[in-house]
Specification:
heterodimer, A: 607 residues, seven-stranded antiparallel sheet, B: 685 residues, alpha+beta, Dna Ligase, domain 1, 17 helices, 38 strands
């Protein structure tokens, strides 16, 4: 019997039913908060891209139920530094966005956090919390985030923890100061109202649970929900990760401001039942905005979600934090930068933190982890409309995700499957015409399980002048493959590809000037593959060819699958012959060539 | 003419509702469905009803029918061999699917294989711009080549969905002409016919589903028409629509997309009609069968509508009565997971073998068995007298669970009910929060075989004050088909700013829509009764990426009042979002018009209400929340208008059993509905 079973069976069955009812009630409450935000937010970032987070916390600020986004540190701690618990009353709402002051509770400025305490008979028993990514909060450029930022002060207004609502009454002065600092006040006010309305609803729902079951049962349930997750992850760690130490290093193409590339370094140690994650050999903080104020919780959540992904009953909460003992970073490094290092593109580092975890896990588990995924791709088009107003088009574009040890990587996903604009809408609203939107053929890393494909989007500029900001990483260092799988295809940005002298832009850059009629071709990278492509079923390779995701050439070269002349069937004899000849590498990873983690760890960080 | 008939054909049973206009009586009937021989169940049912002496086929003036043939075609993937023509450069539109993944937080989730294999998607060289102007002309050579390839690959249907075709359908229509002239056998479906609305993925996937089901639906409807003919029924065959209305079966052959979800929609229409009669404005309809529970919101007699409802793996964007399906029904099986936690569903004992207490060989514990163990199903016969309640079989089925949970059997039964109601609560609150509605202002209207059994429990959990159980809860879906209006939706993308200029454009579009709608009702449907036009517009603040459908009166357009329309939108915005911005610019994306021809409703006799305490058949012991109660047991047939009694009580009838909790009182209204209300507490709770 595992530890988790033993623990749970000591709880009386009747209490278990109450527990299930409370857990269901909390889940319902959190989803309702989510529904309010989806239904009432105004800017596309929140509404269509679903870039927001809702959670219920215990009275110590530990996550109990939450959205499964790994970007949530300790959301309460910094509020308590300014407003001790005993100063809080029913009807308060607290607000902040400052990553440095909060040690990475949020990690870039556009994420605005709101927290509401919940009381029972005058005693504080819980918090509800929401954050959302706002459209524009001032700063150097419309949309606030720019690849060229060199200081956090260029990235918008910073809000330290403030009490925006006291006893139900909003602090209008603070609110007005903030609204004054955006280029799009209507959107901003709408979104802030929406997020605060969700907090209010969540508070009422938790109060209703207290009324029904009592605050003692609620707090017991909080603890048990956290423990369920904790025990689940502890047993996964002890069952799947042997004792030992593994190193992995992954790389970022550039920081946008300089051409320097950077690496993130992980030493994962499992010893005496404790798992620790040491990132302290990571490179120094960057000049450009790829710095990531990484809260301890982030790699814990990433590891926890990966190890429990097969079990939908395990929720993301503080149990992940309790189960993993130790996370180290070095002040002044990419993952623990010193203010005012710019932070707007911190996801470039965050994705590599995730791939370092996969890399370490692959070595610890004979390759049973996922291949790497490229970081998501965005572009910003800024221009003046005919009426002279600011035009801002921010579009998230998808990439292909890394293959898993049991399935292909997903094709064309933007972060947590956020939706893109319909083309017909993009053309209506921004001065562009979209000329094509299709899969990026051969970008999925070949493997027994194929990496996901990126996309190709052709955007024709229809305003006199526009500037383009573009964020593509994983061109110099494409997403690696695992256990025989090959790395994913790289991304690219080309201006006017169809003329005799097309211009290739830096994939991570801003301020690129465009004129009327220019065509921007954005090609996004694919995910790494898993397992030897020669082990992929020939019929699956054929289907990929018919689906336009793999070329017949790649089918032959990478997968050893020869097609018939009409390219509609597998030539079985040729394929069998071809597939006999290949030698697979014993090396665990692949990026343009096979390598071991130790091959990639010769240089030490520059400080 | 004397009879109005409605039929609901489900997977297992076909329900008939017959209204006799001469004496205002309602008769119900059930036969087994014959999915392999569509139409023959209708012929059989009609002849059985004739034998019973409650129907004369030659005197039928109305015959409507709800069906699942369209949705089953998609789920079973047994539709047409499709090819898809799109604007060149966008061949991956179906699979990229706006980057959506069905359940992004589930690692095993992936996009469904499109109904058209990618190799049969053909890029057509042409381009229309956002304002409907032609940027590059249709290259007819690429069209001809594509037609040839599609045919060579075995396609029998071509779906055409070009960019911005909602603004200009010229190229789509020209391609159809070319196909018709080269390959007259090839079926063709145009996105500008099916759903001429902005958002290319949504329009394309909807049109694809339409093309996919068209032939099968048409064949099925022909069989339906023939069945009526051979049964000697003179009424025009009508077919239920996803929007809760009906249309002629003949039209369904060319407009199959609007009838895919007709089965679930008509049940909600039946519930809405009951609500109207009772005079309750906000209703949650709660249709519980053996394997699932369907919940819908009805406000002011109108069901809530939505678009993007899933048909199998695919969203379709035509207006549909919004129904949320929960994977728990009366036959859902209770089990204990590896962590020792009690779970209910999604596995179900279905109708065969059914719950253990039906004594038909079911051995595993279901929700219904939990009710039986607690005494909540009363004693004696169930289901048209065909089933003898076997409580000890239910107890045996629960025993292994009770052991696993270290609880006694009654406590286990109570827990099964608590867990299943909690699951329903979770889904119901989620649904209500999508509409921004407070559950406490709603009445619950349970129907289906298991709805009235669980209804009171869900009402208690949601804090509802009232539960309304209609007279024939088991056949409410068929009943809905009796009273549904002839109804159609018209929509045009207008994409205008709300100012004087925009409004005059809007007026022109409105005129056009009104002509189109009137033509549909009067000419295509041949309807000459009372009709109603309902106008609305999908509006938003500039910059928002989502619209709110805002209802307005035609006068608001005719009088050219910008402020009036804007105010309606601000109000709608405020009621959903709890904030609005009267200074912000407003845009109108789509103009919508619903036309409905009002079908004469059956007039039921109302009964004078004599206020009198109903006399229970017997008193019967039940167990609830760990306590023992004496519940009154009633037969539904014996309850007359004006009867009242207090809970706990159990009311048996042929098609269901109603459970009334201790804190609720019951009154029988003039239509013989059971009105079950939360008893008022002295402390004002």
């Amino acid at each position: 019997m595992s530890k988790s079973d033993a623990q749970i069976l000591t709880v009386k069955a009747s209490d278990r039913i109450v527990f299930e009812l409370i857990k269901g009630g909390l889940t319902a409450a959190r989803r309702e908060m989510e529904a309010v935000i989806t239904r009432t937010s105004m800017s596309p970032f929140i509404r269509e891209k679903k870039d927001f987070f809702t959670a219920i916390l215990n009275r110590d600020g530990e996550l109990v139920v939450s959205t499964s986004l790994t970007l949530a540190g300790n959301l309460l701690e910094s509020v308590l530094k300014v407003y001790p618990i005993n100063t809080m009353i029913d009807g308060d709402v607290y607000w902040y966005n400052d990553p440095y002051f909060t040690n990475g509770a949020v990690s870039h400025l556009p994420d605005m956090v709101f927290i509401t305490p919940v009381f029972s008979d005058g005693k504080l028993v819980a918090f509800v919390e929401c954050w959302g990514h706002l459209w524009d909060i001032g700063g150097a450029v419309p949309g606030s985030i720019s690849p060229t930022a060199t200081s956090v002060f260029q990235e918008g207004i910073m809000i330290p923890p403030v009490r925006i609502i006291r006893n139900g009454i909003r602090n209008e002065e603070v609110f007005r100061i903030f609204i004054q600092n955006t280029r799009f006040p209507d959107l901003l006010e709408g979104d802030l109202n929406s997020i605060m309305a969700a907090c209010d609803l969540g508070k009422h729902r938790v109060e209703a649970i207290i009324k029904r079951h009592g605050s003692i049962a609620l707090e017991q349930a909080f603890e048990e929900i956290i423990q369920q997750t904790q025990f689940a992850i502890e047993s996964e760690i002890s069952n799947r990760i042997p004792e030992g130490e593994w190193f992995f290093r992954d790389r970022i193409d550039s920081d946008a401001v300089t051409d320097d590339s950077y690496f993130i370094d992980l030493a994962m140690t499992h010893k005496n039942g404790n798992l620790s994650l040491d990132f302290s050999q990571t490179e120094k903080q960057a000049t450009g905005p790829i710095n990531f104020v990484m809260h301890d919780s982030v790699p814990k959540f990433m590891l926890g979600l990966f190890l429990t992904q097969h079990d939908p009953n395990v929720g993301m909460n503080a149990g992940f934090q309790r189960a993993i003992s130790d996370v180290k970073t070095r002040p002044g490094s990419l993952l623990n930068p010193i203010s005012p290092a710019p932070l707007g593109l911190r996801s470039h580092s965050m994705f590599r933190v995730n791939s370092c975890l996969f890399g370490a896990l692959a070595q610890a588990t004979d390759g049973k982890s996922s291949a790497a995924s490229p970081v998501y791709v965005l572009y910003y088009l800024r221009g003046k409309s005919a009426s002279g107003g600011e035009e801002l088009c921010i579009e998230g574009l998808s990439v292909g995700y890394g293959a898993r040890s049991f399935a292909d990587g997903l094709d064309a996903v933007y972060y947590v499957a956020q939706e893109n604009y319909p083309i017909e809408f993009a053309e209506m609203e921004f001065g562009v015409e979209i000329e094509s939107f299709s899969f990026h053929k051969d970008s999925g890393g070949p493997g027994q399980y194929r990496g996901g494909c990126g996309i190709v989007r052709d955007v024709r500029v229809l305003l006199d002048e526009m500037t383009l900001g573009i964020r593509i990483d994983n061109c110099k260092y494409p997403a690696f493959g695992v256990n025989g799988g090959l790395s994913g295809g790289e991304g690219k940005v080309i201006i006017n590809p169809d003329i005799s002298k097309p211009v290739e832009l830096k994939p991570l850059s801003d301020g690129n000037k465009l004129k009327y009629g220019d065509l921007v071709r954005i090609i996004t990278p694919g995910g790494g593959g898993w397992g030897s492509p020669y082990d992929r079923k020939a019929s699956d390779v054929l289907n990929d060819v018919l689906d336009g995701k793999v070329s017949p050439e790649s089918a032959k070269k990478d997968y050893g699958v020869v097609l018939t002349k009409d390219q509609r069937n597998v030539n079985e004899t040729e394929t069998a012959k071809k597939r006999k000849t290949v030698l697979t590498s014993k090396k665990m990873f692949h990026r343009r060539d096979f390598y071991n983690a130790t091959d990639d760890r010769e240089d030490t960080y520059k400080s | 003419m004397a009879y109005r008939v409605a039929v609901d054909i489900g997977g297992t049973f076909t329900d008939f509702c017959v209204f006799n206009e001469k004496n205002s009586s309602l008769n119900t009937h059930k036969v087994l469905s014959t999915p392999n021989n569509p139409g023959s169940e209708i012929v059989l049912g009609v002849s059985e009803l004739q034998e019973k002496g409650v129907l004369n086929p030659t005197e039928v003036s109305w015959f409507s029918h709800g069906t699942t043939v369209g949705i089953n075609t998609v789920i079973q993937r047994s539709g047409a061999e499709l090819a898809l023509f799109v604007t060149s450069g966008f061949e991956d539109v179906l699979e990229v699917a706006r980057l959506k993944v069905p359940d992004p937080y589930n690692i095993f989730s992936k996009r469904a294989n499109p109904l058209v294999p990618r190799e049969r998607v053909f890029g057509i060289s042409q381009r229309i711009l956002k304002d409907g102007s032609v940027d590059s002309e249709l290259n007819e050579e690429t069209v001809k080549k594509a037609i040839q390839s599609a045919k060579d690959m075995g396609s029998d249907t071509i779906v055409i969905a070009l960019l911005h075709s909602y603004a200009n359908n010229k190229h789509e229509r020209r391609i159809r002409e070319i196909i018709n002239s080269i390959e007259p056998e090839m079926a063709v479906t145009l996105s500008s016919d099916v759903w001429p609305v902005i958002r290319e993925y949504e329009r394309t996937v909807t049109t694809t589903v339409a093309g996919y089901v068209q032939r099968r639906v048409a064949n099925y409807l022909t069989a339906f028409q023939n069945a009526l003919k051979s049964a000697g029924i003179p009424a025009i065959p009508m077919i239920g629509k996803s929007n809760g209305g009906v249309m002629t079966a003949e039209l369904g052959k060319s407009d199959p997309i609007s009838m895919l979800l007709s089965g679930t929609a008509t049940g909600v229409i039946g519930a809405a009609e009951i609500a109207k009669k009772v005079g309750v404005s906000s209703i949650l309809s709660f249709d519980v069968g053996g394997t699932s529970a369907d919940v819908a919101v009805i406000s002011n007699g109108e069901p809530a509508y939505s678009s993007g409802e899933m048909v199998g793996d695919f969203p379709i964007y035509v207006p549909t009565v919004s129904v949320t399906s929960i994977g728990e029904g009366g036959g859902s099986i209770a089990w204990v997971d590896d962590f020792g936690v009690l779970k209910v569903g999604p596995e179900s004992a279905g109708s065969n073998p059914g719950p253990a207490c039906y004594g038909q060989g079911g051995k595993r514990p279901t929700i219904t068995d939990a009710f039986a163990v607690l005494g909540l199903l009363g004693e004696g016969k169930l289901g048209y007298g065909k089933v003898e309640l076997n409580v000890s079989a239910a107890r045996d089925a629960l025993l292994p669970l009770a052991e696993a949970l270290s609880m006694n059997v009654k406590k286990t039964a109570q827990s099964i009910i608590d867990v299943s109601v909690s699951g329903m609560f979770l889904e119901t609150t989620k649904l209500l929060s999508r509409f921004g509605a407070d559950p406490r202002s709603f009445s619950l209207l349970p129907f289906g075989g298991a709805g009235p059994m669980i209804g009171c429990f869900l009402a208690r959990e949601l804090g509802l004050r009232e539960v309304i159980v209609p007279p024939t809860p088991g056949v409410l879906s068929a009943y809905g088909g009796l009273i549904a209006d002839i109804r159609n939706d018209f929509i045009r993308t207008v994409m205008i700013d709300l100012d004087q200029n925009g409004l005059s454009n809007l007026r022109e579009t409105a005129k056009f829509l009104e002509e189109e709608a009137t033509h549909w009702l009067r000419k295509e449907q041949g309807f000459d009764g009372e009709s109603k036009l309902s106008w609305s517009a999908d509006m938003r603040y500039r910059g928002q990426s989502y619209e709110i459908e805002t209802a307005f009166e035609k006068n608001d357009l005719d009088a050219l009042v910008v402020d009036g329309l804007a105010r309606l939108f601000h109000e709608a915005h405020h009621s959903i979002y709890e904030h609005s911005d009267p200074n912000a610019e407003v845009q109108i994306v789509n103009l919508r018009l619903v036309i409905s021809g009002e079908v004469p409703k059956p007039k039921f006799l109302t009964h004078p209400e004599y206020k009198q305490l109903a006399k229970p058949l017997i008193s019967h012991t039940i167990y609830l929340d760990g306590q023992e109660f004496n519940a009154s047991l009633f037969e539904r047939d014996k309850l007359e208008p004006g009867h009242h009694f207090t809970g706990p009580a159990i009311i048996s009838q042929n098609d269901t059993t109603t459970v009334v909790l201790p804190d609720f009182d019951v009154k029988v209204d003039q239509f013989k509905n059971l009105i079950i209300s939360k008893r008022k507490m002295r402390n004002g709770d």
